[in-house]
Amino acid sequence: MRPSGRDLSEMRPVSIETGVTKHAEGSCMIRMGDTHVLCTATIEDRVPPFIKGSGLGWVTAEYGMLPRSTTSRMRREASAGKQGGRTVEIQRLIGRSLRAGVDRVALGERQITVDCDVIQADGGTRCASITGGWVALKLAVNKLIKAGDVISDPLISPVAAVSCGIYAGQPVLDLDYPEDSEAGVDGNFIMLADGRLIEVQMSAEGATYSRDQMNQLLDLAEKGVNELVSAQLAAVS
């Protein structure tokens, strides 16, 4: 039924390659099927003005898509002079999702910026960015711990995200672009490793959905996040 031939509850192949850039404190390339995202984490001894002097750390994110990450060339947002609304929305989502898994007191008064650059897009770029972003963040924090700059690990849990939706009348896990573009219902589920929800973004794209269908999608998302967390932990071990 699915264009890819996958089972309804089957994820795309997932791989996470770490240490892919020379200068960033943490980096990885995450591949979820044909969606590939480069994630880097940068540690800075500063925080935004609104928390300066509070002793709290901060984690933020930036997101972007390369011009040929899609089937036709996208204009660089820098050439337009401003970021698009979708970009701003996604990078805010990445930032607040990652912060949900951070003890900001333990992090100390410093900022970690996670940059997510989409090399190739085939659906689920924000979910791949959050999942890979956590890996880059963890690698950067490991350097702080090794250097003795933090006393305890400020990361309280892995954070991962996966898309689910209703495609051809059936709940499916991890939508690729052909499914995403035709799905009657489309959702993104961001969770901690223990299944606690950080954020759910769901919308009726072409059909409404019932509470039973919502529960089915949540079950699929929990299965997908469990698989992603296993991949994350293997990557940073």
Automatic annotation (TrEMBL):
Pfam families: RNase_PH (PF01138), RNase_PH_C (PF03725). Residues 10-140, 158-224 form the Exoribonuclease phosphorolytic domain. It is an enzyme of class 2 (transferase). GO terms for biological process: rRNA 3'-end processing; rRNA catabolic process; tRNA processing. One of its GO terms (molecular function) is tRNA binding. It catalyses: tRNA(n+1) + phosphate = tRNA(n) + a ribonucleoside 5'-diphosphate. It comes from the Bacteria. InterPro entries: ExoRNase_PH_dom1 (IPR001247), ExoRNase_PH_dom2 (IPR015847), ExoRNase_PH_dom2_sf (IPR036345), PNPase/RNase_PH_dom_sf (IPR027408), Ribosomal_Su5_D2-typ_SF (IPR020568), RNase_PH (IPR050080), RNase_PH_bac-type (IPR002381), RNase_PH_CS (IPR018336). Its EC number is 2.7.7.56. Phosphate binds at R86, G124, T125, R126. Homohexameric ring arranged as a trimer of dimers. HAMAP family: RNase_PH. Belongs to the RNase PH family. NCBIfam families: RNasePH. This is Ribonuclease PH. The gene is rph.
